[in-house]
Here is the input.
Amino acid sequence: MIHLTPSLALIFQEASRAATALESIKHPDLSKFLVIAAILFIIGVAGVLTRRNLLVIFMSIELILNAANLNFIAFSRYLQDTGRGDPLAGQIFTIFVIVVAAAEAAIGLGIVIALYRNRETIWVDEIDLMKW
Amino acid sequence: MILSGWESVFFWVFSIAAILAGLLTVMARNAVHSALFLISSLVSVAALFILLGAEFIAGVQILVYVGGVMVLFLFVIMLVNVGAEEEGRAAIFNQPGQVGAALVFLGLLAGALVIYAIPRGYQALQKRDEAAIQQASAKQAAAEENMDPSATGVNRLSKQTERVGTALYTSAALPFEIASVLLLVAIIGSVMLARTLKQEIAADDVDPEVLGELKQFGVPPSGGRPE
Here is the structure.
């Protein structure tokens, strides 16, 4: 009996931890949104760092900006719930992030077309004119 | 903001869809597939915006990103199609060393954020705001009672879009105007960047000396590839 008690306590502890984990899965809160946004951001950075295709790198940048937008909206909702600060600031910021992303995509794709016309490649490791 | 019931089911469905589509965006061999996976990721994130009560942003996300930017991407993919990538002749990732270093760095970043930084920060935030959330939730329930019912009478109409519009034209009016100037500059810049040498000569804004030299060498009809 004496030997069983600690292991029983351990099982009980594990069960209560599993119950809180299940509870947090059933009721996602702000931190879950932040985790999703962080994972999306990291996937985007991985795309920028590892891909060779310039267009896919641009798409990964859109993914990164989108993760930032998700953070802005989640905190906007949180501020709305706490009643502190301006709850709309996050949404306004998101609109401007989308505007800047659209402008960035237009300029970036213009550069891609000019580059393809001159160098006939969109592999970033072959575009090394300014590399020393 | 604690979701429950169907909201939490939708949260998990759309967040897993967004992450999977994001992963496939980065890993797809064909750039067109990448663009389509990115579209599904963006739509899933728009659904998450609706869960967070930002209906207007979700609409803007779908109209501007999916309807505008991604169509632009697809057009450019069509213009600069490389072919070698899809046939599997060319590597789609950088050299293994670079990829390995990037993945190690990002794995550390993900571990630090997901396991340590976000839960810790959120706990502290919760401890600080516990009383405020209790107070505000009672006020919010009362405010929700006062919202207009929808046509079917099942749910209530949110005033979120109205408030965002008002804020854009009052407190955020200056950045709004600056954004419009930015878009104008972007339009002009991309038109300038994307035109061919032939179009530049036709526009008659080339320096006359340069124009003489170009004519002397004979500009190729394709618009000048310096080869």
Remarks:
- Chain B touches chain A through 93 residues (CB under 8 Å).
- Residues 221-227 of chain B have pLDDT under 50 and may be disordered.
- The first helix of chain B runs from residue 6 to 27.
- The two ends of chain B are 60 Å apart (CA to CA).
